[in-house]
Every structure is written in structure tokens, then in C-alpha cells.
Amino acid sequence: MRIVKGIPASSGIVTGKVFLYATQSLKAPRYNIDTDEVSEEHERFMDALSRAKDDLDILKTETELKQVANELAIIDAHIMMIGDPEFERKILAGIEMRLMNAECIIEDTIQIMVQTLEETQDEYLKERTMDLYDIQSRLIHQLMYIERASLVDISEEVVLVANNLLPSEVLTMNRDYIKGIVLDTGGKTSHTAILARAFEIPAVVGLTSITKKVTNEDRIIVDGNEGKVFVRPNRITEQEYEEKLRKWIEHEEEMLTFHSLSARTTDGHTVVLKANIEIPEEVDSSITHGAEGIGLYRSEFLFMRPGEHASEEEQFLEYAKVIKGMKDHGPVTIRTIDVGGDKVLPGVEEFDEENPILGWRAVRFCLSRPDIFKTQLRAMIRASVYGPLRIMFPMISGLEELNQVLEIVEEVKRGLFRDGIEYDHNIKLGTMIEVPAAALIADVLAKRVDFLSIGTNDLIQYTIAVDRGNEKIAYLYEPLHPGVLRMIKMIIDKGHGKNVPVGMCGEVAADPLYTCVLLGLGLDEFSMSPVGIPEVKRIIRSVSMEDATSLVDAIIELESYEEINRYVRNWMDERFEIFNY
Ligand code: PEP
Ligand code: MG
Prior knowledge:
Mean pLDDT: 90
Number of strands: 16
Bound molecules: phosphoenolpyruvate, magnesium ion
CATH class of the largest domain: Alpha Beta
């Protein structure tokens, strides 16, 4: 047995079989061929086509045995597409006419087919673009004799072990079968970790070289609460973990009983607890965990699905789904597209920057791409007819930027008005505070908006100058650093000075260790992954505002992170039994 310690990224416990995922983005070669090589290239293609068909037939038989209807329908569609004689004819003719290799002709032919589908008005047909990309990948892997390790095709329960995972890979992988995630890289607030929490998949990250310590099919225990991984566990450890899992499930069930209670301290101070979501499907989980609204809908994930262009109509439907789903459960805060940094858009090469974390991100991207930004705003504002909407802007660094963004919102509204399209005239606008310069002028920004929301994931990263996704320096990423604490206090005070409510949607809001500190600092709204809400609520309901304020008074003058951390841990341990933090 081997025990490896990493960073707990998503709570829960799971035991399973390793699926070692070698991340490889396949770049297909493109080269010219001679006329006398055409028949050889035809043969190469026909051979790959027949192997890809055989693979699909095997997959179909396996899926039939499992009786999963919707998966079977997808495989049938792929079999039909790959067996289409017209497709085969186009590739053979393309090779002959253009004298290019099969991989190149396949990519170009599929690209044309994708464009045709995207131009149709039929939503069903548009969605088939993903299937075409899938067929393309199958054929190219066969041509290059590379085994296709696809997270989409996983069809038995496994624990995914990888060096790194892109947020877009977590978004599209087969979540029915991936029961745990274990990574060499990453930090607690990397977007991959955030998505693992959203999908309630236990995860440990930042393990440095776990991919070199396991082989496929090894048994592994993932303890996402304590950040530990046990490779090839012995019998005693397995039994110990069966017991831990039983207790964890009991704890989770108890937490859900807080669902309908308000987040009110023993002396009557109430705060609002909201959910952070990444996809509309998380609305149900937000409601069952007792969210009083969505405090952060990370809309950029809508743009990260391969093969999709989120058109105005598609976005409108998604936003409307969230707003309608939350009906009577509080307002929905949609954050405008926040790409860049670790969230690159598939196929956009401009994101390849020297310093992406300080680069072309979030509103900076939006202001230089008004086409994308205005389309998104139009879709959001149109969806406001279904319920209370708040729009929030990420990475605002100064007043000029905020003014520009607010001006564009007004312009989009005027356009809708001219077009006779209805929308709610009471949409609330807010800005995130996640850049230190914005924190320092939070009072100036607060005068122009209806609410502020502190994004600690980035604010800590920029304040301490520590990459949130880099496990080597994760020890420096410290929410209780006195510099961070003072900054949060300053933002809340400045917001309140202008009568503007201040919320927090960074991961600090979800960690029970910080709940009383944030309460004592006067935070109005805590927004977090739905699963985190009940524990935070339990703590708020068993403390008084007076006590929380005295905790803050005691720590605010302390000089080092270590002193503050020790003080807060002792203070919390004396009062609460917390499962993990
Ligand atoms: C944050 O930075 O705290 C935040 C909520 O935004 P994101 O994690 O998406 O960068
Ligand atoms: Mg952020």
C-alpha cells in the first residue's frame, strides 16, 4: 500500500479502480501525396474506416448489455454516420482530387459538414456537430494507430488519475462512471477542482507524481475530505474507509435537514446563502441544498463545450432555464463570460499568452470582443422576463472599465427596446472585486452598481502573487493572511459606506473554517457550491453575531498568518464539531 498526501479539492470518499488518463491533444498531420500514392492512401482510409466501424460495433454490444437507452442512441447515430456511403465517397474523392493525406481530407470534410449543420435552424441537427467531431477523432486515431483514451467513452466505474485535466474535459467526461479524480497538478481553487465540487465527485489534486505511482486497474481510495490517496490499499485500510464512508453519508444526510431553515444567527442577524453553479443542471441541487438564489453562474462554461458556438438563442434558452428553474428560490446572478487564465476557449489561439493569469481575461476579453459580449448581454437581458436577474462583471480593475461595461449594457437594453423585445427594467448590476486595485477603490465602484461580490479565488492570487493552480506554491495561498483579511474588511466597509450589499463568491465563502470570520466582518451574502451550503448554515445558526464580531476584533490586529490561523482554528474547535476543514 502507498499513501500519498495532496490537496483536498472536492469532499467525499470513494474506492475504485484506476483509469490512468494520458492527456494528449492529437494533432493530425497534413501533407501532400503523389498521384501514384492515391490508391495506397485510399486503402489506408478504408482500413481505418473498417477498424473504426468494428470498434463501434463492439461498443454497441457492450452498451446493449448495460441497457442504457440514450447512450445506445448516440452510438447508433455514430454507426450510421460512419457507414454513410456518401461520406466515404467524399473522402475518397477528396484524396484523389486534392492529393492530400486522409487525415487532412477527413478534417476538412467534417468541418464543412459542421458548418452546414450550424447554419440550420434545427436545434437537434445543430447538436449533431459534437457527433461529427467524435467520428473525426475516431478515424484519425485509427489512421495514426493511437489508442483513443476518451473520457467521454468511459463505460465502467473508475477513479480518474491524470497529470492535469482541462475544465472542458471535466465538463464533457462521462460523469456517470468517473467516481473520483486524482491529479498531479492543480490547487483547491483551480477551475477543475471547482467543477469536481459542482459535480460532487471526490477529488484530491496537487499530488505531484501520482501518475507515476499507479498503473491502470490498480485499486485506489480517494479521501477528498483529508486530501489523501491510498494506492493498492490493504484490507485494514479498506475496512477503515468503509466505516469512514458510512459516517460521511450519515453526515451528508444530516446536513440536508438544514434545507428550509434560514441562515440566522442566535441573536437574530440574517445573511443570505446562495449557490455557485457552472451548468443549468445544478439548479436542482442548489434548491435541495437550500440556496436562496444563485450568487454566481459561471456562464463561460457554456462556451467551452467543443464544437458548439453559443448563439444568442442558445444562450437565451440556457439562461432562461436557470431563471425559470430557480423560480421562487431567489434571484439568479449571471456572471458575464470570464475566459482566459486557466479557462481557455477551444480553438482560440490568442489565449496562448506569456502570462495568461495577468492577460487577456474576463472583461478585458469582452471589451475587445463586443460582438460576443453584446450577444451574451442580449441573451441574458431577454431571459430576465422569467424572474429576478442580476448581472455581474468579472475582473473589473478600475472605473473606466466598469463605466464602459455599464454603457454597453445600456446600449444593449436600448437595442432591445427598439426591437420591441420585453425585459425586466429592474435588473440589478454588480461587479466582482477580485483585483487588488478594485478592492482599494471599492467605494468608487460601489457608487455605480447595486452590489459587490468578492472573488477571493483571484483576489488572493493577485494579492499574495500566488498562482491559484500551482501546487508547488499552494502553501502560500492563505485566506487568513493578514493582508487578505484587511483587504476583505476594507471592501465590506467601503461597500457598506455606500449602502451597497457585499457578497462573496470565492471558495473562502464555502470553507466552514472562515464562516464566523466572514460573518463578523459583516459579509451580507455567501455564495458557494451547493453542497457546501448546509454546513455553513449550521455554523451560522449556532453562533451569535456578537461572538463573531469579537472573533474579528481579536484577529484583525494579529500580525502573521500563523497566529491568525491558530487563533481561528482554536476558536472554531472550541465551539463546533466540523467534519473537515
Ligand atoms: C473568484 O475569483 O473568486 C471567482 C469566484 O471567480 P473564478 O473562480 O471563476 O475565477
Ligand atoms: Mg475569478
